[in-house]
Amino acid sequence: MNPDSKIYIAGHNGMVGSAIHRNLVAKGYSNFVLKTFAELDLTQQADVEAFFETEHPDYVFVAAAKVGGIVANNTYRAQFIYENLMIQNNIIHAAHLNKVKKLLFLGSSCIYPKNAPQPLKEEYLLTGVLEESNEPYAIAKIAGIKMCENYFRQYNDDFISVMPTNLYGPNDNYDLEKSHVLPALIRKMHLGKCLEQNDWASIRKDLDKLPIDGITGSQSETEILTILAQYGIKIQSSKFKVQSSTTTLNLEPSNLELSTLNPVTITLWGTGQVYREFLHVDDMADACVHIMQNIDAEKLYSKPGQTHINIGTGIDLTIKELAEIVKKVIGFDGSINWDDSKPDGTFKKQLDVSLLRSIDWVPKVDLINGIRKVFENYIKKPLTNSQ
């Protein structure tokens, strides 16, 4: 890519796409073609093909997708497979028809078999049964990888794929029904801390930014407590109340005596014993740009079983350990319950990042500082209706 190359980022407003855009701008790229969903519905083939015929981008990053956590994946199964297949099929084929110089497709580590050996090597793709809860999404992403591979094999298109691990960072989704595990933990524990300290101003501010099932900050305390309880955020007793207003926006553990706090419990899905790997989205974006600049399809597909490149840290931890880190960063003093009647998902999804390391890329953001920065950004985000 040259600084004046015309670059299309599909999904530029999302967490992944916006991070790629930031990274490219920081590196001196300025010739972008960007379309919102209102301007271009990527599930519509004719519209996508017309867009490519008009704009003729040189390079394409496919960061657009319908995404969500275990609840959303398991609930909206048909939408996840249909919409993701349509988006990627339309973009990849239109890129081929219009002779795009290079395309990078982003998938997800859920593409790997449920019981694959750990850490997950690229060659393990299609060697076993997928995790049932996110199978539709995984199948769509596998199809995208195979499209890129086979458009190279048949047409010699320079189309490649990368598989990021679990991502977090700016512009993440904090909807408690549709979010991934880390933003859900951050929001639940922030609200839990607010309840502990009887800080209704901060609770109402949070709900005004992102209502929960239609409940905003204008509702009564009873209505708000009811909806929070449905999402596992509960005051166990109203015996203790904070008598003075206390800020919840610092990141240090609470200095309040325990006896002055409302006893709050947060219930989380599963056992907390499964392992996950987390990468800051700015690191992911930097890796994508590095790969786009240095790896072509001929090199990627030269070895059997090498159809994509894993992007991650190569280090994982249990969800229970993650919850304790978030709890400490936010300063939530309450208790955490684990609902083992709910699914855990795949037990372990640690990526083998040997191939990524071999092309001279390593992550820069450590998990604790990354979570701290994300939480700071979350509580400073302006109200939705003021944007």
Overview of this protein structure:
With 387 residues, this protein is an alpha/beta fold. The strands form three sheets. The chain has a six-stranded parallel β-sheet with strand order 2-1-3-4-5-10, sandwiched between helices. The chain has 13 helices and twelve strands. α5 links the parallel β4 and β5. The protein has a domain at 7-172 and 277-315 and 349-365: Rossmann fold (3-Layer(aba) Sandwich).
Key words describing this protein structure:
40% helix; Rossmann fold; three-stranded mixed sheet; alpha/beta
**Low-confidence stretches at least 5 residues in length (pLDDT < 50)?**
239-259
Quote the distance from N terminus to C terminus: 34 Å
If you average the pLDDT, what whole number results?
Answer: 91
- Name the helicity range: 40-55%
Rg over CA atoms, rounded to whole Å, is 22 Å
Give the oligomeric state.
single chain
As a percent range, the share of strand residues is: 5-15%
Main sheet overview = 6 strands, parallel
Please give the count of helices: 13
Strand order of the largest sheet: 2-1-3-4-5-10
CATH level-two architecture of the domain at 7-172 and 277-315 and 349-365: 3-Layer(aba) Sandwich
Query: SSE string, helix = H, strand = E?
Result: EHEHEHHEHEEHHHEEEHHEEHEHH
| Main CATH class of the domain at 7-172 and 277-315 and 349-365 | Alpha Beta
Helix and strand content put the structural class at alpha/beta
Number of E strands: 12
